[in-house]
Amino acid sequence: MLIVEDEILPAMALRDELEDAGYHVMDLTDRHQEALAAARGRKPDLALVNIELQGHDDGIELARELKAMGVPVLFISGQVSRARSAQTVAIGSLPKPYSALDMVKAVDYLLRHQAGDESMAPPPGLEVFDETAPGLKPDPV
After folding, report:
1. CB-based contacts of 79-83 (< 8 A; 24+ apart in sequence)
2. What phi and psi values does residue 71 have, to the nearest 5 degrees?
3. Average pLDDT of 74-81?
4. Element counts in the chain: helices (H) and strands (E)
5. What pLDDT shows up at residue 140?
6. Residue partners of 81: CB distance under 8 A and separation at least 6
7. End-to-end CA distance of the chain
8. In the 8-state DSSP scheme, what is residue 98?
9. Residue 133 pLDDT > 70
10. Residues 91, 110: Cα–Cα separation, whole Å
């Protein structure tokens, strides 16, 4: 798991909650280039990306680059309309404010969904965008 978030305290709380749930958070950053370097070093199963990052970095552009590397992205941003406008570069969005528990449920759902497990319903608040993104299988017809 890779967390790219400009607000350090919520990002640390999110990291702790995900790790308590059994996930490994490989890196926590607030910068575009640091996130890319981390993803190149060890490809994460999922990147949680805020749209507005430090130094005027753009999370949508980061998501585009991560997708090209085969890393699925979940937007974690209060900018719902911007997230929806960029749905081709992310697999979904969980808008702020969200609880750490909501995020764990969203991650559980997305990782199971990527593995083809359709037994879990998407948690409230999670908007799934492109079900044919890398690693995601389309729903059966």
Report:
1. 79/51, 79/52, 82/51, 83/51, 83/127
2. -100, 115
3. 86
4. 5, 6
5. 36
6. none
7. 31
8. -
9. no
10. 8
Mean pLDDT for the stretch of residues 59-63: 92
The rounded distance, in Å, linking the Cα atoms of 88 and 96 is 20
Residue 122 tokens read as: 């998407």
The answer to whether the CB of 81 falls within 8 A of the CB of 123 is: no
**Residue-level length of the chain:** 141
At 135, the pLDDT band (50, 70, 90 cuts) reads very low
Supply 36's token pair: 């890319």
Structure tokens at 118: 């359709």
Contacts of 121 (CB under 8 A, 6+ apart): 109
Per DSSP bridges, beta strands 92-93 and 27-29 are unpaired
Q: What is the mean pLDDT of residues 43-63?
A: 88
Amino acid at 43: K
